[in-house]
Each structure stands twice: as C-alpha cells, then as structure tokens.
Design a protein that fits this description.
The chain is mainly α and 163 residues long. The protein has one domain (3-148). It has helices at 3-18, 21-42, 45-79, 81-115, 122-151. The radius of gyration is 19 Å and the shape is elongated. Helix 1 packs antiparallel against helix 3, helix 2 packs antiparallel against helix 3 and helix 2 runs antiparallel to helix 5.
C-alpha cells in the first residue's frame, strides 16, 4: 500500500472522530448554561442534577475533542508537509488565534466549572459555565474561518513559486 494512501486513511480516522466531539461540546455547553440558569432561577434541584450530569459528559467530549484536534494538527505537518509549507502562514494563524483566544478562555473556565461546584458561589459557577460555552463558540468561529479559507483561498498569493 502506498504511503500517501496510508496517510489519507490515518487522517480520515482522526478527522472522523474529531468532527463528532467539538460540535457535541458546543451543544452541551448551551445545555449546561440553560440547566444551570434554570437552577439558579428556580432553585429546583432537578436542574442542578441535570447540570452536573451534563458537565461530566461535556468534560469527556471536550477531552476527546482536544486529543483528536492536537493529533490532527500534527498530522497536517507530518502527513501533508508540502501543503503546510505553502499555507502554514495563513492557515496556521487562524488555528493559533483559535488556541490563544478561544481555547484558552474555554479551558480556563473549565477548571472552575468542573471543580468549583462547592468552592465558588453559584453565580460565579454560572459565569464559569457561560465562559466555557462562549469559549467553545469562539473556538468554532475560528475553526470555521480556517476551514472555509481552505475551500475558497483568497487574500494572498505565493511569491516566487510560479503558482
């Protein structure tokens, strides 16, 4: 079997798993905000139980999404080195912005979300839940920017390569 085919199969498996978990995280973030908001508004323990349950599921999907995303980014460089050399400055800047702005916000508040149930006030915990949700939304925006650029590359030109 050709090395290129093996690289494509490897990347296909990674992308197939990665495309499942980040969208789940985005949707679960909204569910957690709604459940915790209803708990704060009504005081009904059912909403708190639901929020705690979905927070655990969110943590699992977030962890798998991060693991597959990191592997996928390394595969860009290892499996598609020529592609990365040509578009790395453009494509990489969108991915870097996603990591610096959105992922940092999401990860920072995730610690409070997971471990702050009995350590911070309910209002602060809700703010952390909202921060995690907003971080996941901002992350999605940057990823869509990076992926849409690959489909319709505009706003740059390669100098000196004859392309």
């Amino acid at each position: 079997m050709d090395v290129e085919i093996l690289a494509r199969i490897q990347f296909a498996f990674t992308v197939a798993f990665h495309y499942i978990y980040p969208p789940l995280s985005i949707g679960l973030g909204l569910v957690m905000v709604i459940m915790e908001g209803l708990y704060l508004r009504t005081g009904d323990k059912v909403y708190e139980t639901m929020a705690r349950f979905w927070t655990k599921i969110f943590a699992l999907t977030f962890g798998i999404g991060v693991a597959t995303g990191i592997v996928m980014e390394f595969e860009f460089g290892t499996n598609w080195a020529t592609y990365s050399r040509y578009v790395g400055d453009v494509f990489g800047s969108a991915l870097a912005a996603e990591g610096i702005f959105a992922f940092a916000l999401e990860s920072g508040f995730l610690g409070i979300l997971l471990f702050g149930w009995n350590r911070v006030s309910p209002r602060m915990h809700f703010i952390a839940t909202l921060g995690v949700f907003l971080g996941s939304m901002f992350s999605a925006v940057w990823i869509v920017v990076a992926n849409s650029w690959q489909q319709t590359p505009a706003g740059f030109h390669i100098v000196g390569e004859g392309l």
